[in-house]
Amino acid sequence: MYGTATRDASGDPAHVSASGVSTASGTAVLFAPGALMAAGALVRSTPATPAAPEADLDGSDPVA
Question: Is the pTM of this model over 0.70?
Answer without folding.
Answer: no
